[in-house]
Specification:
Layout: H1 2-20, E1 22-30, E2 41-44, E3 50-52, E4 58-64, E5 70-75, E6 82-86, E7 92-95, E8 106-109, E9 112-115, E10 123-127, H2 128-131, E11 150-154, E12 163-167, E13 180-183, E14 186-187, E15 200-206, H3 209-212, E16 223-228, E17 234-247, H4 258-276, H5 282-290, H6 294-298, H7 308-313, E18 317-329, E19 333-345, E20 352-365, E21 370-384, H8 398-404, H9 420-425, H10 436-442, E22 443-463, E23 466-485, H11 490-495
Parallel strand pairs: 1-7, 13-16
Antiparallel strand pairs: 1-4, 2-3, 2-5, 5-6, 8-9, 10-15, 11-12, 13-14, 15-16, 17-18, 18-19, 19-20, 20-21, 21-22, 22-23
Length: 499
């Protein structure tokens, strides 16, 4: 009797170990025409085990226990759900039938979603499928040319230049025409500037008064409703999305070559300024700087051409994006974690752009009737340098310097040399022309932006037709700019004792 008891005591851990070991089930899912179905959700009833079918309709799933039958639930958009009981002895073959319910495009309006055919007001939409292959770091630029009635224009050449979005044209001459941005139910200013295209599930643009009435006067310029990606039930999936690109200036403005420029300066000194001011010293200034005789001017035909546009904006630059997302969950709780890194060299010399984005979204069913969710988004951005212009007079326009500065260097002048006589000659209302290369090195600018956004909701289903939902959010922003202006810069000349 003691030997038998000892035997069962020794056997019990083995039986327990065997029961807890997972087993691998395999199978294939097809449709009515026997074509393989990809992306079908496969869940094991009574456990957290789940997976999806691959491009050929095949799947493998680890289920607890080594023996006995397991019920597998198959679900896919547009098809009727199927439940199959199997012991795993043979591969599971499942054929799914299309659902009798006709599918309709769903758009987000106000506090609910509706079928597109039931929405009377004009609505423009774009989905994650349309954005996933767009090789751009900016979610704003990714919308360009993709939404009817929505104008998307880049205002500047700076790496972090804002993109202006106008819905159905501007309605005000003096006031801001920007639309209202709603992200997961919370209004956020300029939301697309702090979001990655890889984190967006859908964008719906409400363009008419009847659709925007729920937002009052804030929706007068249109409403851009952004829904971020959520988790999906099933096995945890890790996805990488990245791209590498090369940018260059596609077209340069036409400028004079050295001989043409000297001829223009010669004629201006002899005729243009003399007519306006007979006592001008332009002739003497020209002679001192460029020469006096016709033969002297002919020498400029052989002087190398200095293309300041190419020097300042003509090099090929690189752009990279890396995105890693972790997505998964079970029947009660789903989660999505996304991390994005953007590195973008600016076309303008001494400029670049770096951004790190972290997005997390969690939703869970606390009870059969109560569902709660939490969203966190953090943006860390650093911009070095400037674009082609700044607010203010044309003195701050770097493109002006690159286009109008003399395309020739006198003997002995370095390519980054400061020419005080030419600055004095061209100075008018402090709009002196400065060597663009040296001007770029004389300006130091770095801008840091940190944005932290929290959103949360609780939805209680009272009955199949009524759901009470409460949404809240908080947005924290911090902006820091470090800059230094040397004595030759327009800022220093206008506001200080620059040269």
């Amino acid at each position: 009797m003691k030997k038998i008891s000892l035997f069962f005591l020794l056997l019990a851990p083995i039986l327990i170990f065997a029961q807890t070991q997972p087993r691998l089930l395999k199978g294939k899912v097809t449709d009515n025409s026997n074509a393989p179905l990809a992306g079908v959700n496969v869940l094991a009833k009574g456990s957290k085990a789940g997976t999806q079918t691959d491009a050929d309709g095949n799947f493998t799933i680890n289920v607890p226990g080594t023996t006995g039958k397991v019920s597998l639930v198959f679900s896919h958009t547009g098809f009727k759900p199927v439940t199959v009981s199997t012991d795993g002895a043979q591969p599971v073959g499942v054929r799914m039938e299309k659902s009798d319910v006709s599918l309709e495009d769903v758009v987000v309006i106000g506090y609910q979603t509706k079928n597109r055919r039931d929405v009377l007001a004009p609505v423009a939409s774009i989905s994650a499928k349309d954005l996933k292959d767009v090789p751009l770091n900016s979610a704003e630029q990714a919308l360009e040319g993709r939404l009817a009635g929505v104008q998307v224009t880049t205002s500047e050449g700076s790496p972090d230049a804002s993109v202006k979005i106008v819905v159905r044209g501007g309605i005000s001459i003096t006031q801001d025409n920007s639309p209202l941005y709603i992200v997961d139910g919370i209004p956020i200013d300029n939301a697309l500037q702090s979001m990655s295209p890889q984190d967006i599930q859908s964008i719906d643009v409400l363009k008419d008064a009847s659709a925007t009435a729920i937002y009052g006067s804030r929706g007068a310029n249109g409403v851009v409703i952004i829904t971020t990606k959520m988790g999906h039930p099933g096995k945890t999936a890790i996805t990488y999305n990245g791209f590498y690109g090369i940018k260059n200036l596609t077209k340069e403005l036409g400028v004079m070559h050295p001989y043409d420029f000297i001829q223009f300066q010669y004629e201006r000194s002899r005729w243009g300024e003399y007519i306006n001011n007979p006592n001008t010293t332009a002739e003497n200034t020209f002679a001192a700087g460029w020469g006096t005789t016709f033969d002297t001017l002919q020498n400029y035909k052989n002087v190398p051409f200095v293309d300041w546009q190419h020097i300042m904006m003509g090099e090929q630059v690189h752009t990279m994006t890396h995105n890693v997302s972790i997505n998964g969950g079970d029947e009660k709780t789903t989660y999505n974690l996304s991390m994005t890194r953007n590195d973008d060299q600016g076309l303008v010399r001494n400029s670049d752009y770096t951004r790190n984005l972290l997005t997390f979204r969690l939703e869970t069913k606390a009870t059969d009737a109560l569902k709660v969710g939490l969203g966190v988004r953090y943006t860390n951005q650093r911009v070095t340098g400037s674009g082609t212009s700044d607010a203010g007079s044309t003195a701050f326009n770097r493109l002006r310097q690159s286009v109008k500065y003399k395309p020739v260097l006198l003997p002995g002048q370095a390519v980054d040399a400061y020419d005080p006589s030419y600055a004095a000659e061209t100075n008018s209302s402090s709009l002196a022309l400065i060597n663009p290369l040296q001007l770029s090195d004389a300006e130091y600018r770095k801008r840091y932006t940190n944005v932290l956004n929290f959103t949360g909701f609780a939805a209680y289903t009272i009955n199949p037709h009524i759901t009470f939902r409460s949404t809240g959010g908080m947005n924290l922003s911090m902006y820091t700019e470090n800059f230094f202006e040397d004595t030759i810069t327009p800022d220093a000349r206008l506001n200080g004792n620059g040269k």
